[in-house]
Amino acid sequence: MDYHHTIHLPRKVVWKWIKDEKVLQNAINGCKIFTKTSEDVYYCEWDLQFGPIKDVFRLEIEIIQEKMLSFYRLQVNGKGNLGDIQAVIDVFLRDQQGTTKIHLQADPVLTGTLAIVGQRVVNGGADKAITNFVERLEKEIKKVIFQARRGINKRS
Question: Could you tell me the pTM of the whole model?
């Protein structure tokens, strides 16, 4: 899987907020819980819905490599009732005239019923899900910046 999207914010701003727990929880559609469990490790409960596939996944997401402001690599391991998800996701951030070009590369491995039924459905819906995530991420970052300027501390 290979995705390219533009976030209409400077890269330095995106980098600051792209690993924030609340920003990510609000940006991931169907995310019920997103918490940092230790340095560079997060726990996520995610309601996955792609077509006929519906399941709750418990994910561990670890940042296994990072280059300040431009790259990080995630190791994702998740379990649900329909199977497991494992993926290495590379996230590249690049400046482009005041915006941030985000490039995501992922190689997911699905097991169980999810692999049998879901590979085609997941591949078909993944682009839409990634686009939705990036759009929501941008909105969440802008919301946090707006609230900070207004002196509003609470984020939801």
Answer: 0.86
Alpha-carbon span 48 to 53, nearest angstrom: 7
Residue-wise pLDDT for 18-40, tens only, equals 999 999 999 999 999 999 999 99
Beta bridge pairs of residue 83: 80
**Residue 114 pLDDT class (50, 70, 90 cuts):** confident
List, for residues 118-137, the tens digit of each pLDDT value: 556 666 667 778 888 999 99
What is the Rg, in whole angstroms, of the alpha carbon atoms belonging to the chain? Answer: 16
DSSP per position, the chain? -EEEEEESS-HHHHHHHTT-HHHHHHHSTTEEEEEEEETTEEEEEEEEEETTEEEEEEEEEEEEEEETTTEEEEEEEEEETTEEEEEEEEEEEEEETTEEEEEEEE--EE-HHHHHHHHHHHHHHHHHHHHHHHHHHHHHHHHHHHHHHHT-----
Tell me which amino acid residue 61 is.
I
Q: Are 74 and 53 in contact (CB under 8 A)?
A: no
